[in-house]
């Protein structure tokens, strides 16, 4: 008797607890809210590394305007320089982008490099170009010295300082020169972006990679020609691309462009004198 009552109660409870229609879980839509942990760049941009990762237009705004609603908003001004996430967008390039910019650097008279990279300057290409130059310069310079000593049957010793000197030259040049030029352009109220200058100068050094490889030919006049051609191409590339921006600096724009051109030529002369002037 009690068993029957329990059965009846259980059946009623079960029938009352089962809904009339259960929706198919496969049709449920789950909506996730956007993460508020993104610190840089602004969430409205789009890039290749991740959603919202596109290089900003100008470095001036990069480190001065905190993104509202983010963790970085508590850090203002140049404190954001020390945040790794602030630099992610400057490496948001693929192989085709880098190759296209390298090709533009080998066409110095086109003057379209700044226009193409105005919205997406990168530091990936300049970093690897400088790094490649360091090892190419050290390796080829050492090899040329070795061959010169062996031809004259003299003892040869490896100079480790070549690597250190090359690293200081290329990394220092591509960092200090754009910084100084940025300050000068700011003084004359000429439009400029710091990262844009880093990008321009970094790619301007690519022409020295094949030039260093050609300098392995043991003919002094040929080495001078190679160094001269590479220097003129690199200097023209930088000067032509900056001319349109520097013209707004006033009457002294020509002096600035001429200084940029001559400084780039001086780099090629230094490379020739230090790496490929062999004394045995």
Output mean pLDDT: 74
- Residue share in helices? 55-70%
Shape descriptor reads globular
Q: Tell me what portion of residues adopts beta-strand conformation.
A: under 5%
Tally of helical runs: 10
Distance, first to last CA: 116 Å
* Radius of gyration, whole Å: 30 Å
Largest sheet features:
none
> What is the helix/strand order?
HHHHHHHHHH
The stretches of 5 or more residues where confidence is low (pLDDT under 50) are 1-19, 27-47, 49-74
What's the total count of β strands?
0
**What is the structural class?**
mainly alpha
Notable characteristics:
single chain, disordered N terminus, small GTPase binding, 280 residues, mainly alpha, membrane, 10 helices
List the helices and strands and how they pair.
Blueprint: H1 2-17, H2 59-62, H3 95-105, H4 113-117, H5 124-151, H6 161-187, H7 194-204, H8 208-214, H9 220-246, H10 253-275
3D architecture notes:
InterPro entries: Yip1_dom, Yip5/YIPF1/YIPF2. Belongs to the YIP1 family. Pfam families: Yip1 (PF04893). It is found in: Golgi apparatus membrane; Membrane. The chain crosses the membrane at residues 126-148, 169-188, 194-217, 224-247, 253-275. This protein has helices at residues 2-17, 59-62, 95-105, 113-117, 124-151, 161-187, 194-204, 208-214, 220-246, 253-275. Helix 5 (124-151) crosses helix 6 and helix 8 (208-214) packs antiparallel against helix 9 (220-246). 57% of the residues lie in helices and 0% in strands. It contains 10 helices and no strands. The model is unreliable at 1-19, 27-47 and 49-74 (pLDDT under 50). It has 280 residues and is an all-alpha fold. The radius of gyration is 30 Å and the shape is globular. It has a domain at 122-275.
